TrEMBL record:
<feature type="compositionally biased region" description="Acidic residues">
    <location>
        <begin position="107"/>
        <end position="117"/>
    </location>
</feature>
<feature type="compositionally biased region" description="Basic and acidic residues">
    <location>
        <begin position="29"/>
        <end position="43"/>
    </location>
</feature>
<dbReference type="GO" id="GO:0005730">
    <property type="term" value="C:nucleolus"/>
</dbReference>
<feature type="region of interest" description="Disordered">
    <location>
        <begin position="371"/>
        <end position="422"/>
    </location>
</feature>
<dbReference type="GO" id="GO:0030687">
    <property type="term" value="C:preribosome, large subunit precursor"/>
</dbReference>
<feature type="compositionally biased region" description="Polar residues">
    <location>
        <begin position="82"/>
        <end position="103"/>
    </location>
</feature>
<dbReference type="InterPro" id="IPR007109">
    <property type="entry name" value="Brix"/>
</dbReference>
<feature type="compositionally biased region" description="Basic and acidic residues">
    <location>
        <begin position="52"/>
        <end position="63"/>
    </location>
</feature>
<dbReference type="InterPro" id="IPR044281">
    <property type="entry name" value="IMP4/RPF1"/>
</dbReference>
<feature type="compositionally biased region" description="Low complexity">
    <location>
        <begin position="391"/>
        <end position="404"/>
    </location>
</feature>
<dbReference type="Pfam" id="PF04427">
    <property type="entry name" value="Brix"/>
</dbReference>
<feature type="compositionally biased region" description="Low complexity">
    <location>
        <begin position="147"/>
        <end position="157"/>
    </location>
</feature>
<dbReference type="GO" id="GO:0000460">
    <property type="term" value="P:maturation of 5.8S rRNA"/>
</dbReference>
<feature type="region of interest" description="Disordered">
    <location>
        <begin position="1"/>
        <end position="167"/>
    </location>
</feature>
<feature type="domain" description="Brix">
    <location>
        <begin position="158"/>
        <end position="343"/>
    </location>
</feature>
<dbReference type="GO" id="GO:0042134">
    <property type="term" value="F:rRNA primary transcript binding"/>
</dbReference>
<feature type="compositionally biased region" description="Low complexity">
    <location>
        <begin position="8"/>
        <end position="20"/>
    </location>
</feature>
Length: 436
C-alpha cells in the first residue's frame, strides 16, 4: 500500500508539469491541483513578461522590441498570399533597371514612336472630353435601371405564362427597395413589363434613354441569388454572387436613410482586375457626394469577397465621431467579367448552374484531394507517355470544347468565349491566390 501511495504521489507531481490530472480519481483533489498549476503558470508568465518589458525599456530596447515583433509575426492568409504580378501597388523587387530607366535609354526610333503614341492618346482624350456634356452636374446621381432576372420555369412549372412568372418573390422585392434607397438616381422597372424581351434589348432601351447602368437582381429559390452590373453604353458586364444579405429591418440600432448621395470608399482593390471592378462600382455613384448627408458607402475587398456596408457619421464633438449603420449589408463575389454587353440567355439573366454555388467545407476538402490526385496522375502520365500522349490529350480536350460550344449554340445559351475573368470552383482550393 505504501508503495502504491508513493507511485501515485510521484505520478501526480509528474503530471503537474503537463497540466493533465485525469489520472486522479478524487474530483476535489484534481480541481485543487489544477488551480495550483494554473496559478503557477500565470505567475511564471507574468514574471517573464515583466522581465521582457524591463529589458526593452533599457538600452537598445527599441531594437530588441522590433526584432521580437519581427520574429513573432503571425502567419495569416493575407501575408502568406502568393505574389500576383498584376498588383499595381507592389514594389519592384526584381534585379535590373525599372521601366522609367528603360524608357530613358531607348533609341531615337523609340522616342519617335513614343511621341506618336502620346499624340494619339492626347487626341483620344480630347475626343472623350468633347463627348462629355458640359451641362452635366458632377454631384447629380447617375441614372440606374434596376430590374430582375428572367424567371425560370423550373421554380414555378405550374405557371405557363412568362409574364405570370416575372413577378419576383417578397425577399427579392425587399432587396430591390433597399437598392433604391442606396442609389438616389435609381429607377425600378418590373421585368413583367418587358414582355419576355432579353437583357440585351433591355440594355439597348436603357442606353437610348441615357441610363448610366443596369442592375439585374437574380432570383433563385425565391431569394436574391446574384447581382449583374452592366455599365452603359458599351460595358463592361460583371456578374456577382450575392450572399449574407441583411436588410435594414434586420439591423439592430439602424439609422434612417436620407435622399443625399453618399460618399464611396473602395478598400483593398489592388490588382488590375480589382481596379476594373472598383471602376464599375464607382460608376454607380456621383463624382461629388453630398457631404451634408453624412452618409458613406464602403466596399471592402478581402480575399476576393466584397463586403458592402452603408453608415452615417455621428459627430460627438470636434475631435470624436462614430458610425451608425443604415443598411443594407451584403457580400459580393465576382464570378465573371466581360468587356461588352450581355447577349443571349446566360448566367447574366437567371440561367444559373451548379458551378455558381458556394462550396461546402466537405466538398472543398474532396476537391483539394481530387486536385492533388489529378496533378500526380498528370505528372506520371507526362513522364511515361511522352510527347505522343500529350498531343493526344490536347486533341481530346479541343474536341470536347468544340462539342460543348456546339451544344450551347443549339440551346441558345451565351458562350463564355471573350470573358476577361471567370470564377471556377477549383479557384477556392488554394487559399493563397486572390484576384482582386
Amino acid at each position: 500500500m505504501a508503495g502504491n501511495a508513493e507511485a501515485s504521489s510521484s505520478g501526480e507531481t509528474g503530471k503537474t508539469t503537463s497540466g493533465s490530472f485525469k489520472h486522479i480519481g478524487n474530483k476535489m483533489k484534481r480541481t485543487e491541483l489544477y488551480r495550483k498549476y494554473k496559478a503557477e503558470k500565470a505567475k511564471a508568465k507574468f514574471a517573464r513578461r515583466s522581465a521582457q518589458a524591463k529589458e526593452e525599456r533599457g538600452e537598445d530596447g527599441a531594437a530588441k522590441k522590433a526584432a521580437r515583433l519581427a520574429a513573432n509575426k503571425t502567419r495569416t492568409i493575407e501575408n502568406t498570399r502568393d505574389f500576383n504580378p498584376t498588383i499595381i501597388n507592389a514594389p519592384n523587387t526584381h534585379e535590373g533597371p525599372g521601366s522609367s530607366n528603360l524608357k530613358a535609354g531607348n533609341s531615337d526610333d523609340d522616342d519617335g514612336s513614343d511621341a506618336g503614341e502620346e499624340q494619339t492618346m492626347m487626341q483620344e482624350e480630347q475626343e472623350a472630353a468633347e463627348e462629355v456634356d458640359d451641362d452635366e452636374d458632377p454631384s447629380a446621381p447617375p441614372a440606374i435601371l434596376i430590374t430582375t432576372s428572367m424567371p425560370s420555369s423550373s421554380t414555378s412549372p405550374h405557371l405557363e405564362s412568362l409574364n405570370a412568372r416575372s413577378h419576383p418573390a417578397e425577399k427579392t422585392r425587399q432587396f430591390v427597395y433597399e437598392l433604391l434607397s442606396v442609389f438616389p438616381g435609381a429607377e425600378y422597372r418590373p421585368r413583367a413589363k418587358a414582355q419576355g424581351v432579353g437583357l440585351g434589348k433591355i440594355c439597348g432601351w436603357a442606353r437610348e434613354r441615357r441610363f448610366g447602368a443596369v442592375l439585374v437582381v437574380g432570383e433563385s429559390r425565391k431569394e436574391p441569388f446574384a447581382l449583374t452590373l452592366i455599365q452603359l453604353p458599351h460595358g463592361p458586364t460583371a456578374f456577382f454572387r450575392l450572399t449574407s444579405i441583411r436588410t435594414a429591418d434586420e439591423i439592430y440600432g439602424k439609422a434612417h436613410p436620407t435622399p443625399h448621395t453618399p460618399e464611396l470608399i473602395l478598400n483593398n482593390f489592388t490588382t488590375v482586375l480589382g481596379h476594373r471592378v472598383g471602376t464599375v462600382l464607382q460608376s454607380l455613384f456621383p463624382k461629388i457626394p453630398q457631404l451634408e448627408g453624412r452618409q458613406v458607402v464602403t466596399c471592402h475587398n478581402q480575399r476576393d469577397y466584397i463586403f458592402f456596408r452603408r453608415h452615417r457619421y455621428m459627430f460627438k464633438s470636434d475631435s470624436k465621431t462614430a458610425l451608425q449603420e443604415i443598411g443594407p449589408r451584403f457580400t459580393l463575389k465576382l464570378h465573371s467579367l466581360k468587356e461588352s454587353l450581355p447577349k443571349g440567355a446566360g448566367v447574366w439573366d437567371g440561367k444559373y448552374t451548379e458551378e455558381y454555388a458556394e462550396l461546402e467545407p466537405e466538398e472543398l476538402e474532396a476537391l483539394q484531394a481530387q486536385n492533388g490526385d489529378e496533378e500526380a496522375a498528370a505528372a506520371a502520365a507526362a513522364g511515361a507517355g511522352g510527347e505522343a500522349g500529350g498531343e493526344q490529350k490536347v486533341a481530346e480536350a479541343s474536341a470536347a470544347s468544340s462539342s460543348s460550344s456546339k451544344k450551347k449554340r443549339q440551346h441558345g445559351e451565351e458562350e463564355t468565349v471573350g470573358l476577361d475573368f471567370q470564377w471556377k470552383p477549383k479557384m477556392s482550393v488554394s487559399r493563397r491566390n486572390f484576384y482582386l
